[in-house]
Design a protein that fits this description.
Layout: E1 4-6, H1 16-35, H2 49-52, H3 55-71, E2 74-78, H4 85-94, E3 108-112, H5 118-127, E4 133-138, H6 145-168, E5 171-175, H7 181-189, E6 192-195, H8 209-217, H9 222-235, H10 245-258, E7 263-268, H11 274-288, E8 296-301, H12 310-315, E9 320-329, H13 354-371, E10 376-383, H14 386-407, H15 417-428, H16 434-443
Parallel strand pairs: 2-3, 2-4, 4-5, 5-6, 7-8, 7-9, 9-10
Antiparallel strand pairs: 1-10
Helix pairs in contact: 1-10, 1-14, 3-8, 4-8, 4-11, 9-14, 10-14, 11-14, 15-16
The protein binds 5-phosphoarabinonic acid.
């Protein structure tokens, strides 16, 4: 098993009988999920995706990635939310958070269209100067404001640099199979197009073309990623809590929520996991946080944040629990040397790896935080590889779906995201929003 639920540190907080008590509910909801009879059942394509994904498109993704590796120095990935978080997370975890600065034979990758900040976009534009550039515009709806604005800017850049015809060969559009503004534009302009499947929502889309093209461009083995997800799909197909660690994780967080824990902090001891934290926050936050319910998904990277948030976690208001993703093996070990004169007093660590020290920090922290009344779930992952990460992604997907059904919400929609958009469009004067504009401006005192 690639991801194991370690409930050892939860024992003071959750009795074995509490898991048993929820087994009948899990069995019923597993049936609802697998038979597609629950809320949001139009978005269950991810359940079998690691097995049934479109092989022809997968081959096209690999071919496009090879072409991009050859003709591109800077690859611009435009998307927001589910249209970029997964790919950025996987690239940073499996390659490096310093990916762009490393010596490599793959292009630099910059993620834009995930904010509306001109400084950010201008800086990325300047990083493209004198470089061969290609662009992947990713939007399921094809109308999201942030990526649409960024695409306007980068399309102009490519067309100026390469001409309309040349730009055409450097723009890759990942969008709906048949409908939407971006699909129409891609067809008219002749961009190579990839599909966001109808039955897969943004936050469940990292293993579709949405995530796979940028991930493949970075040089990650996407076959292994899919094989890991397939292994998870098979291993996690049972409703039996003693066999399904993804469901066990969902049940543990549900029990803790029922006991008044309102915040879940996803913790890693690897800074390369920081964007995975962000991906996970979107997955659980957008899926569960509705109808006045849901755990607030927070995150931390230790030991870094032990010197900031650590104080609060140890002694602040007792509203949170932690879920630690603990990797067994480091990607590249580093050993601490010995000094002739033990001037810094660290010779007791000579010959030990940094990961040995990191692991003692993990053990010491889990014990300290549980002593401080912060329950700790530990998810054990043997190592950082494409296979394990594919497994972990599916593990969280499935836990998230069950979690949503356990709290009685639709885990596959995001109606709340529209509120800010409507206000923003009205304030910007988008045609059709005239009435709202006047009302909002009055509230703003204009
Ligand atoms: O999970 C989701 O559905 C959202 O985060 C979307 O991915 C995000 O809003 C971007 O939407 P789109 O891909 O339509 O531009």
């Amino acid at each position: 098993m690639s991801v194991t639920f370690n409930g050892k540190y939860l024992e003071p907080f959750i009795g074995a009988h509490e898991y048993d008590a929820l087994q009948p509910q899990v069995t019923a909801l597993h049936k609802v999920l697998h038979e597609g009879t629950g809320l949001g059942n139009k978005f269950l394509g991810w359940i079998n995706q690691p097995e049934t994904y479109d092989r022809e498109e997968f081959a096209r993704i690999k071919a496009a990635a090879e072409k991009i590796k050859k003709d591109t120095e800077v690859f611009i990935v435009i998307g927001i939310g589910g249209s970029y978080l997964g790919s950025r997370a996987v690239v940073e975890l499996l390659q490096s958070p310093f990916y762009n600065n490393l010596k490599k034979n793959t292009p630099d990758i910059y993620f834009v269209g995930n904010n509306i900040n001109s400084g950010y976009l201008n800086e990325v534009l300047s990083l493209c100067e004198g470089k061969e550039v290609s662009v992947n515009i990713i939007s399921k709806s094809g109308t999201t404001t942030e990526p649409s604005i960024a695409f306007r800017v980068f399309r102009e850049l490519l067309e100026k640099k390469y001409g309309k015809e040349g730009a055409r060969g450097r723009i890759y559009a990942t969008t709906d199979r048949a409908k939407g503004t971006l699909k129409k534009l891609a067809t008219e302009e002749g961009y190579e197009a990839f599909v966001v499947p109808d039955d897969i929502g943004g936050r469940y889309s990292v293993l579709s073309a949405v995530g796979l093209l940028p991930i493949a461009v970075s040089g990650v083995d996407i076959d292994e990623l899919m094989a890991g997800a397939k292994a998870a799909k098979d291993a996690l197909a049972t409703d039996d809590l003693s066999q399904n660690d993804s469901y066990k994780y969902a049940v543990a967080r549900n029990i803790l929520a029922r006991k008044g824990k309102d915040i879940e902090i996803l913790v890693s001891y690897d800074p390369a996991f920081a964007m995975m934290n962000e991906w996970w926050k979107q997955l659980f936050g957008e899926s569960e946080g509705k109808d006045g319910k849901g755990l607030y998904p927070a995150s931390a990277v230790f030991s870094t944040d032990l010197h900031s948030l650590g104080q609060f976690i140890q002694q602040g208001s007792r509203t949170m629990f932690e879920t630690v993703v603990h990797f067994g093996e480091a990607k590249t070990p580093l050993t601490i040397g010995k000094l002739d004169e033990d001037i810094d007093g660290l010779n007791f660590l000579a010959g030990k790896t940094l990961d040995f020290v990191n692991d003692r920090a993990f053990e010491g922290t889990v014990l300290a935080h549980t002593d401080g009344n912060v329950p700790n779930i530990v998810l054990e992952v043997p190592k950082i590889s494409a296979h394990e990460v594919g497994y972990l992604i599916y593990f969280f997907w499935k836990a998230c779906a069950l979690s949503g059904y356990l709290v009685g919400i639709n885990p596959f929609d995001q109606p709340g995201v529209e509120s800010y958009k409507k206000n923003m469009f009205a304030l910007l004067g988008k045609p059709g929003y005239e009435e709202q504009k006047a009302a909002l401006e009055a509230r703003l005192g204009r």
